[in-house]
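for the writeup, i need someone to sanity check this before i put it in the appendix. the sequnce is what the collaborator sent (i think, or maybe the updated version? ugh). structure was predicted straight from it, no edits. if anything looks off just tell me and ill rerun, i have time this weekend
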Amino acid sequence: MKSAPSACPNGCQRTGGWELWSDEPGFKVLRCSSCGLGWTDPVLGDEAIGEYYPPSWYGKNNARFNPVFEYLVRLFRLRRSRVIRHRSHVGKVLDVGCGRGLILNELQQCGYKAYGVEISEHAAWHAQKKIGPNIHVGDFEGAPFPEDAFEVVIFWHSLEHFRDPSAALKKANRLLKKGGLLVVAVPNSDSIQAKLTGRNWFHLDIPRHYFHFGLKSLEDALKNNNFRVVQADHFSFEQNPYGWLQSLYNALGFQFNFLYNWLKTRSSRATPLQKHPIQSLAIFILMPFLLPLALVLTVFEAAVEKGGTIELYAKKTG
């Protein structure tokens, strides 16, 4: 365990403006008062952070959720692959933090040559089975991929897990062809969700998230590494309604992220549901009231460009 940076990793040389203690004891978030980039303090080493990713985290056969939500996950991956296809040329695609390889599988069926990176064998098992030997298990910096070879590099809710996101973006820039597409999705720490729910925000996810981006800080990070943003999306039906719903339950005093635990398969649950029968019942009682509210808030935050998550599409400029 070590102290977090004292100056902004985006090069602003400013800190302060926001200090938030998380629900995880012993950790806090520091934030640059200039660009808004946040970072978790202290930073865990490889062995310590590994304790937050036990095999049960990924679920049996890498299936984390119940069958209904697993079906929805696959529909969302299909939608994501269509967006990427419309914004890129067919060629080599690299998904950094590819998980089960669902999006790579969709793109591969459309003619792309799929490559992926995952940090552990547990996380990469399903992707290796689907995609084959092009899945690198280990850190991204050490991945032996050719430079100037990829049409697309994807960081889908993975960039915030890097201890040095700038180094990761530099590597992505080297791997992409000139004019290649970079796809980045992250939780938005400048969102209405984050501001209203604070330490109860579902997407805070400390200490697994080393960095906490807002739109400006992410755009600055991309610009500093020779990318030009061509599209920023604040509406995500996949992420944002649930982000509101879980954050509201957290704020009401439920066991932290209890709904998230409830939606998982038995093999990946952190706590057996039978230990909390009253909270399980209360989830159902409140759902007809909180779900419509979450949907309204999702539409509103997108309309004012303060979505709970943001998706950026950028082109390599140099």
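The longest helix spans residues 277-303. The chain has a mean pLDDT of 88.
thx in advance!!
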